[in-house]
């Protein structure tokens, strides 16, 4: 029974993968064919290593050439998946949560040294940053990725790096890493085409005034964890205004 269940799941996963890759937007049909072949090799082998998955020097070289092609970017690779995300969203009634957060991807070889309570050392490492926006239902059912952005610190400076030289508040949002929040809110809203249905959720890093303005302009909703104690319309700060409100509920877990 377990073998049959796994086989059925694999067949369903392959069918969904083929449906997503068929919608990928490559500028050349040859790139689309190569992408489907490389993805099939990696998923079949169950190993992210390209030489191990391809099992052939010529196929490995073709895969590396594909990923180094300047006409191949994250949108071309993920566009099919994002179109499938939009299809699932359009068939899902009710409110939806778009969860925005940043992940550090490290290509270091010390995976065994990083545990649940460990911390990566503050040193130069080979890797990149990814800011993704998955869509889930209030019950926690994932529907897919609506927006994603990759970058390195060579292009943008973090807030701590800016503080050493200038006041970060005087730097335009377009020159800071914080622009990723605005870009993903806009990209996910344009992709899903249902701003009234979506609630964009972020941590303290997303407490950005420009993000509030962008969400209001797009006609969508947001829920962020406050970081700055801003003034409200009645000239009170947000913290003082919250303290004056009645307790609406409590959670003891």
TrEMBL record:
Record InterPro entries: RNaseH-like_sf, TN5-like_N_sf, Tn5p-like, Transposase_Tn5-like_N
Gene3D superfamilies reported in the protein's UniProt record: Tn5 transposase, domain 1, Transposase Inhibitor Protein From Tn5, Chain A, domain 1
Keyword terms of this UniProt record: DNA-binding
Record-level Gene Ontology MF annotations: DNA binding
Domain Transposase Tn5-like N-terminal: 21-72
Pfam families: Tnp_DNA_bind
Superkingdom of origin organism: Bacteria
Protein's name according to its UniProt entry: Transposase DNA-binding
């Amino acid at each position: 029974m377990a073998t049959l269940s796994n086989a059925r799941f694999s067949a369903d996963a392959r069918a969904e993968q083929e449906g997503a890759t068929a919608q990928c937007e490559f500028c050349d049909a040859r790139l689309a064919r190569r992408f489907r072949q490389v993805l099939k090799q990696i998923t079949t082998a169950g190993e992210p290593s390209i030489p191990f998955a391809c099992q052939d020097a010529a196929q490995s070289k073709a895969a590396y050439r594909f990923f180094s092609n300047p006409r191949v970017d994250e949108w071309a690779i993920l566009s099919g998946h994002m179109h499938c995300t939009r299809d699932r969203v359009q068939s899902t009634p009710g409110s939806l949560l778009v969860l925005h957060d940043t992940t550090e991807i490290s290509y270091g070889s010390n995976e065994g040294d990083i545990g649940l309570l460990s911390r990566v050392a503050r040193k130069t490492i080979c890797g990149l940053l990814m800011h993704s926006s998955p869509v889930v239902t209030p019950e926690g059912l994932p529907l897919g990725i609506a927006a994603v952005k990759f970058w390195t610190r060579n292009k943008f400076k973090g807030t701590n790096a800016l503080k050493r030289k200038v006041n970060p508040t005087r730097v335009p949002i377009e020159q800071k890493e914080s622009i990723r929040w605005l870009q993903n809110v806009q990209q996910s809203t344009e992709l899903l085409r249902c701003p009234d249905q979506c609630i964009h959720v972020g941590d303290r890093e997303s407490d950005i005034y420009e993000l509030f303005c962008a969400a209001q302009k797009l006609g969508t909703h947001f829920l962020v964890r406050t970081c700055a104690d801003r003034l409200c319309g009645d000239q009170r700060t947000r913290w003082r205004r919250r303290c004056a409100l009645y307790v609406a509920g409590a959670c003891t877990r």
